[in-house]
Design a protein that fits this description.
Elements lengths: L4 H17 L2 H10 L6 H18 L1 H9 L10 H15 L8 E3 L5 E3 L1 H8 L4 H9 L6
Length: 139
């Protein structure tokens, strides 16, 4: 992380609490508050870490946030994150883009069944939710 875990922990906890409210204006205010952090990369990392914690503690709130990714933009682009995650994982497994899988501009993934199965194995709760909600894998 760009800042130490001890410095970051209260920011992550605050973000998780705000995300649980499912209130767009509070999320916007949180992001404004985070502008005092050392860099935009720090803000992105805190938001991403909070999203992962939210998935483990409140999957319903996490699904809501994933269904409204615009609330985290531009600090955290969930469609881009999900696309890069899937791309790296599928290519590491030997799948070929545009042959075995492809992405729509909105991030939806079209993939052969074998690629979908490989993509879905060994993921955290947050990664599973991101694949379902953002890339619509399994839908």
């Amino acid at each position: 992380m760009c800042i130490s875990n001890s410095t970051c922990k209260p920011h992550v906890e605050l973000a998780v609490d705000v995300f649980k409210t499912q209130t767009p204006t509070l999320i916007s205010s949180l992001k404004d508050f985070f502008t005092a952090l050392p860099s935009p990369k720090c803000v992105e990392e805190i938001l991403a870490t909070a999203l992962y914690q939210l998935a483990d503690t409140d999957p319903d709130a996490c699904r809501w946030l994933l269904r409204h990714p615009q609330y985290l933009e531009p600090e955290l682009d969930l469609v881009e994150w999900a696309t890069q995650f899937a791309l790296k994982k599928l290519q590491a497994q030997g799948f070929v883009r545009e042959q075995d899988f492809q992405f729509e501009p909105n991030g939806k993934l079209h993939a052969c069944d074998r690629a979908k199965v490989k993509l879905s194995v060994g993921n955290s709760t947050a990664e599973k939710l991101i694949l379902e909600e953002i890339l619509q894998v399994g839908n």
